[in-house]
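Model it.
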Amino acid sequence: MTAEPLSLEPLCLESQSLEPLSLALLSLVGVSVLLDLAVGDPHRLPHPVVGMGRVIAYLERAWNRGSPRMRRWRGAGLTATLVVGTFGLTWSALALLSLVHPWLALAAELWLVTTALSIKGLVDAARAVAVPLAGGDLPAAREELAMIVGRDTEHLEEAELARGAVETVAENTVDGITAPLFWALLGGAPLALAYKAVNTLDSMVGYRNARYADFGYASARLDDLANWLPARLTALTLWLAAWAMPGARRRGALAATWRQAPRHPSPNAGWPEAMVAQLLGVQLGGTNHYAGVASHRAVLGEAIEALKVAHIHRAIRHMHGGWLAFLLLMALAVLITEGLT
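Modeled.
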């Protein structure tokens, strides 16, 4: 009896054949994580989120008018159009590429899942604040922080600059890393990009102000739903990973996060922020200013340590530990699912 030749075909011959929580999807997502860590988002390559933003901006100008009731219906139409359209276009493109060659479809899906992740981009953005802050260059640190937050930064001192960077790292651990991983493991690139469409809609029209309160209502609620489970799992995996990190304040962190997270105005952002605050022994939240107007938020954590630039680097380490533990947790779910089928 002769041995059969080793097949070099991809684990998934066609994108549409991928099964949720499968070893094939886990392999695809794992390679995408490595690609994002290595290259991030090269500026010379087109990015799907840029295209989504242009579509949202165009349709918002055309549809955001009329009575409050009409704005809600049109906003819901925008949400459905972009999310369903993104999923359908991605699935169709991968299906067509698989007809040309399975490897071409696989390469395209790897790239598309990579664009849904922001691990390297988040680290780079946080370090861009930390580096000038460590050197005492407050104006440069303020400019860098203004690139990633909506609050006024012109008069912030070291503690508030560090707080803004730490909060950004904590909150975006979900939006930019664990939630895309979660949805990619359930549906590959089509579902990962559909999630990014939801997230982009929320970031552009999901505001509670006169212009978007009605038009962005559906977008904001769908974003809340899409992040609900990933946000809570992320708080858990941040805590689990902290057991391997010297100096992390793990004792009581789960119970304190459970109590404090609901105080945040977002139903999801409070979970990673509260956990990071507990693990660092710092206080997040408080008063921010937007266009000169003060906005008061509930505080998270306890001010055991005064916020400083070192906490930005520690938050980055917790972020890495959190997404890695999240991926391992999802891998365990994959193995259990595979074992049951």
